[in-house]
Structures are given as structure tokens and as C-alpha cells.
Amino acid sequence: MLGGPGPETTAVPAWQLLVGGFIAGFGARLGHGCTSGHGICGLGSLQWPSAVAVVTFMITAMITANLVLRLQS
Amino acid sequence: MKLGHTLATLAAGMLFGFGLAASTMIRPEVVLSFLRFQDFGLMLVMGGALVVTALAYALVPRLLRQPLLGGSFQKHAIHKGARMVAGAALFGVGWGLSGVCPGPAIAGLGAGNWMLLYALVGLALGALVQGLTDKAP
Predict the structure, then answer these.
(1) B64-88 CB burial, b ≥16 within 10 A, e <16
(2) Tens digits of per-residue pLDDT, B13-31?
């Protein structure tokens, strides 16, 4: 479940974590929420602007993740 | 902050982090494989969390007259409009590039994944720059 006692690591390159983090941090503040804020708290309290936010960031995240995969292979 | 609030916040954060780790959402690879349509675990985790949260939001205010720690029940304000949608779109680009969103970036550090510090520094700088460059009133 937790993958044993050893430390976790990731093969995602540092620049992707840093640049992706920067864009996500900028967007989360501008958009007033992230996956948890809009996706769980916003939808959970039935606030429909959050549904717009969730659909929007799911679509752009899927496009980005697939583009990155294609450019890397 | 009163002691009760501090302890409740600590307990809620621990539970959230535990859940993110137990469901493997602290692994960027798992998140990216969802975004690449290879693994739908994230959908189940988010859906499960959503059901619990929605039930709590709907039922608790009916069962309790006021929150256990005082005050009154209220919803957090959601801002709508083009700026919010633009922010969500940007957030998605960053999330899709890194496979990391703010919660797992913090929780993953507890699992010893120090690479996530890159993401955490990026998130903090991005939010800082957004505030510094924001021209809205």
C-alpha cells in the first residue's frame, strides 16, 4: 500500500517539477483553488463555478501530460 | 489560534496526507498515468473524497447546531469569472507538466521524496509572482 519503508522518489525531471510547480502555483492563486480546493471542497459544497474550474484544469492537464509524453518519445 | 483549532487542523492535515500517501497520489507517476489515460485510480480517489465531503457538508450542519469548536457553518467563497477559468487552465498546464499538485507536494515530503522540493519551490514562487503581478483591484 505505502510501498514499504524505503523513501519515495520520482523519475520526473527536476526542471518539469520546478517549471510545472511554478505554473501550477501561479494558476492556483489566480484561479482561487487547486485539485483539492475546487475538486473536493468546491464540488463537495455544490458550488458550480468549481465544476467549471475542474473541467478546465483536467482538460489542460491531460493535453499537457500527453504532449510531454509525445515530445519525450 | 486556540489550542482546539490547532489540534483539529493538525489532525485534519495528517488524515489528508495519510490518505494521499495510502492512495499513492503522492507519486507524480501515478498522477501522470491518470492524465495519460493509463490508470484511473485518481478518479476513484477524487470521487471517493468528493462523496465523503459532500455528505459532510450536507449533513453535519443539520445534525449540529454549530461547529464543535464554535463559530458558524459557512461555505468558502468561490470566485467565478474569466480570471478564475484562466487560472484553472494554467494550473492544469503546470499539473500536467509536473504531475504534482499542492497537497501531494507537501505530503510526499513525508515519504522522503525530496525531489518534490523542486515542485514546492516552484509552487511557492508561482503564487508569489502571481500576487506581485496581479493588477486586479
Answers:
(1) eeeeeeeeeeeeeebeeeeebbebb
(2) 999 999 999 999 999 999 9
The boundaries of the domain holding residue B46 are 3-72+79-133
For residue B94, what are the contacts with CB-CB under 8 A and spacing of at least 6?
A: A19, A20, A21, A22, A23, A24, A25, A26, A27, B122, B126
Q: CB contact, 8 Å: A62 with chain B? A: yes
Total of domains in chain B = 1
Q: Which of B85, B19, B107, B8 is nearest to A33 (CA)?
A: B85
Q: What is the DSSP string of B62-83?
A: HH-SS-TTSS---PPP---SHH
- The complex scores an ipTM of 0.92
Q: For residue A55, give the C-alpha cell.
A: 473541467
Q: What is the pTM of this model?
A: 0.92
Say which residue, A54 or B71, is predicted with more confidence. Answer: A54
Identify the closest residue of chain B to A69 by CA–CA distance: B36
- Residue B137: pLDDT over 90: no
Q: From A27, A2, A29, select the one nearest B98 (Cα to Cα).
A: A27
CB contact under 8 A, B94 and A27: yes
**Cβ separation of B122 and A56 shorter than 8 Å?**
no
